[in-house]
Specification:
Number of domains: 1
Order of helices and strands: HHEEEHEHH
Radius of gyration: 15 Å
Number of helices: 5
Distance between the termini: 56 Å
Largest sheet: 4 strands, mixed
Number of strands: 4
CATH topology: Endonuclease, Chain A
């Protein structure tokens, strides 16, 4: 499975590469994302482990039944699954990022002093 993850990272779609450029290196909302991560018998496109958020980028090759089973499994494991079509990422990256950011927990605000 590790070899498959490595292969998927090397052969990512244009949409996956474009989204990864925004999510990598805590570049996005201070959240740490990983790509092509194994969860159970599945490899998810992107994972924010701390927030338990999975982001999937789907192309025309995806099967609705298989995707539904995958989403169901991930949700049963406590993950929030967000799915986008390749075209959504390529044509509306800002909107995609906004939806991902809305799913992230709001960080606690530092205590204010009354000086």
């Amino acid at each position: 499975m590790r070899d498959r993850s490595r292969s998927l990272r090397s052969n990512s779609t244009d949409a996956e590469r474009k989204l990864w450029q925004q999510l990598r290196n805590r570049n996005f909302a201070g959240a740490k994302f990983r790509r092509q991560v194994q969860i159970g018998s599945y490899i998810v496109d992107f994972l924010c482990p701390a927030a338990r958020i999975v982001v999937e980028v789907d192309g025309g090759q995806h099967s609705r039944e298989a995707d539904a089973a995958r989403t169901s499994f991930l949700e049963e494991q406590g993950f929030c699954v967000i799915r986008f079509w390749n075209n959504d990422v390529l044509q509306n990256l800002e909107g995609v990022l906004k939806l991902i950011e809305e799913a992230l927990p709001t960080p606690p605000h530092p205590a204010q002093s009354d000086d």
